[in-house]
Every structure is written in structure tokens, then in C-alpha cells.
Amino acid sequence: MWALLIILLVLWAGLAVFGFVIKGLLWLAVLGIVLFLATLVIGMLRRSAATKE
Known about the structure:
Order of helices and strands: HH
Structural class: mainly alpha
Strand content: under 5%
Mean pLDDT: 83
Number of helices: 2
Radius of gyration: 13 Å
Distance between the termini: 17 Å
Low-confidence stretches: none
């Protein structure tokens, strides 16, 4: 599970950097940042839920 989460975080960060490098793809940077943050939040929520059990 953690491997998938880390792969997604790297992928979203890469999309964000790629979107900022190519100015015409600014929407890709925004999408990458949003998906990165969403994945990070979901990972933290699942981690905290797993430690409570």
C-alpha cells in the first residue's frame, strides 16, 4: 500500500513540475498539485486509522 502511495506522490509531483516548465500546461501543474495533496491527505488518514485499530 505504501509503495503505491509513494509512486502516486512522485507521479503527481512530476506532473506539477512538468506543468510549470511548459507554460502552456499550467493546468497540468495545478492538477498535479491537487492530486499530490489529495493523495497525501488520504495516505495520512489511512495511516491514522490503521494505528487506532
